[in-house]
Amino acid sequence: GTFYQKSGIISGGSVDLARKAKRWDDKQVSTLKTKKEKLSEELRIAMKNSRKESEIQTIQSQIEGKEARLKFSQNDRDSTRKKIDKLSKEMERMREDLEKLTPVIRDIEATMRNKEEQIEDTKEKMNTVEDRVFKDFCKKMNTVEDRVFKDFCKKMNTVED
Question: What does pTM read for this prediction?
Answer without folding.
Answer: 0.42
